[in-house]
Design goal:
This protein is mainly α and about 150 residues long. The protein folds into 2 domains: about 1-35, no CATH class; about 40-145, no CATH class. The protein has helices at about 45-50, 60-85, 90-115, 125-135, and strands at about 1-5, 10, 30, 35. The strands form 2 sheets. The protein has a two-stranded antiparallel ribbon. Strands 3-4 form a two-stranded antiparallel ribbon. A hairpin with a 6-residue loop joins strand 1 (about 1-5) and strand 2. The protein is elongated, with a radius of gyration of 18 Å.
């Protein structure tokens, strides 16, 4: 399924321009999205977020964000336990935290973009949390096409 960049209506994959609005499309469509856009494949959401290590543009679904948070929490608990067993109390936890800090911020910013808000809203604790739970705007918004692929 491919959607027009201009009007967000479904068009044929090979279309170079939209028959409805005439908007020029990307040269080729990739995975039902636009060339150059970042989409989530059907893999493990945690790994998909790590693949987009410092991508602050675009949008992220609630599922992508909250699955990353869940996996991150479970891995943090396991590493904390391992730190206690090995006696390296802060070392492994610190290394892991530093390694996933940038992808964590990036996916949170993309999540804010999905609800059509700037990533700066993350600095306002209660408002940022509310927007992270809020469903994304359907169709296109100022941050790109919907990651759900719906119009």
């Amino acid at each position: 399924m491919v959607f027009c960049r201009g009007c967000a209506k479904q068009i044929h994959q090979s279309a170079t321009s939209c028959p409805g609005c005439g908007a020029t499309q990307a040269a080729t469509a990739i995975n039902g999205g636009f060339a150059g856009s970042v989409g989530v494949s059907n893999g493990i959401p945690y790994l998909e977020v790590l693949k987009k290590y410092a991508v602050f543009k675009g949008r992220a679904r609630r599922k992508e964000y909250w699955m990353f948070v869940l996996f991150n929490l479970l891995i943090t608990i396991a590493i904390g336990y391992l730190d206690n067993v090995l006696g390296t109390k802060p070392l492994l936890s610190l290394v892991y935290t530093l390694a996933v800090m940038i992808p964590g911020i990036a996916v949170a910013v993309r999540r804010m973009h999905d609800s059509n808000h700037s990533g700066w809203w993350l600095l306002v604790p209660i408002a940022g949390l509310v927007f992270l739970f809020k469903d994304g705007t359907p169709g296109n918004n100022r941050f790109g096409p919907s990651p759900k692929g719906l119009v």
